[in-house]
Amino acid sequence: MAEPRIIRGPYPEISIPEQTLVPFVFERASQFADRPAIICGATGRSYSYGALEAAVRRVAAGLVAHGVRPGDVVGLVSPNLPEFPIVFYAAVSIGAICSTVNPIATAEEIGAQFADSGAVLLVTIPDLLPKCQAASQHARTVHEIVVFGAAEGATPFAALMTHGEAPPAHQIRMDDVAALPYSSGTSGIPKGVMLTHRNLVANLLQMEPITAVLKPGDHVLGVLPFFHIYGMMVVMSGALREGACIVSLPRFDLEQALGVLQQYRVHMAYLVPPIVLALAKHPVVAKYDLSALRYVFSGAAPLGRELAEACQQRLGVRVRQGYGLTETSPVTHVHPMGDGPEQLDSIGTCMASTECRVVDPETGADTLAGKPGELWIRGPQVMKGYFNKPDATAACMTPDGWFKTGDVAVVDGNNWFRIVDRVKELIKYKGLQVPPAELEAVLLGHPAIADAAVIPVPDEEAGEIPKAFVVIRSPIDAEAVMAYVAEHVAPYKKVRRVEFVASIPKSPSGKILRRLLVDQERAKARGA
Is the pLDDT of residue 188 over 60? Predict the structure, then answer.
């Protein structure tokens, strides 16, 4: 087989210090001790950098006093609150592992995650206590549940703050696991992703082309969930390392987010494509003064050129996007933040110290420039592996360290990448590959269309054909939708069926849940 075609970016190699995550994040915090580190956009509660760092030390001592030991898993089930980073960094600072979970998950889902990880202590909010108590019946290793505030049957968060500020010293190694978020990976049930101190410190260094545009005191919108790797590392850890102030929101509400952008003169908004879509097209945006906003950074799902341009033009900001996965801590690619050539539908180039390949999933051979293939990544941000899942780890990791992302990419002659779909979600029309994400981006360019998703449906002649699920903002019929797409794509990529729906199912990070639509379509076919 030919030599692999290894692609690198334009950035110099990084030098990773022998410094664990928490000291690295708060390395310059003493310079900003009196400045706000995080403000709750819903209530106004806040912590300065000095108060935040002191709270981390106190809660770390409290966790030790409550029986948490190095290597133990602390579960965190919470929306974005100012106390979220306190618990996260407190656990990690004592050599424990923080495993976060979506607060809208069911008791069974929460219980399954913490049973798998062997969590010993959970931290949550009073409203979620009954669900976490039910979850602990599945995860029998949990010996205590702590709530922010107070609730009967749980330890109040304040009780963790009564044990001084000096937890017992413990030697933490750079290759010790710090965070254990869960991801489905390329397929299958959620798996614990073991991210080490080295992984996370390396990725914060690699992120500097993004975070370097932040100055101490700049305000950053913290609406993306901190339980998700994007919110956890890019927003929370990245902003705190730079001395910026995070304005957090416990959930996304468009008008509330717009109010925060206006009130706090937010400079940087880290978003996902559905929120970019709202900023670009929703009429209520015009009621707010967003003149302080300089950057909109999109991740977690592909952002189309038309949508990026529409947001730029409407708000007068720079729209940039990047790419990453839970398994890569997360960032691997970024669109340059400054002046220069723009490819708004691109995720940019590889980050520093990151190598990539684009591999034909059927032949295992590297593709040529401009040809799609599965994106493989190697670098210091790639996970240690899936927790207690050696077979799943081996399925996506090669012996020489390449992580197979399951995403389909195209790279041009300048080494700029575009993600065009998932390996398992490509539509095969008469043997030709049709990426659903490409068609979705086209559909979102129509002014009458508010949202869209595309899936394969069986066809006797073609094998599979693209079907679009469309949310409209103004009247349009199916024939007009199909004609619009046909004007913008090759004939074999045309949408051939359309169904109008009230909403598109999405994950908390903004990814379209196409599998749900596929399952619904199959169920309807069986019923017919």
Answer: no
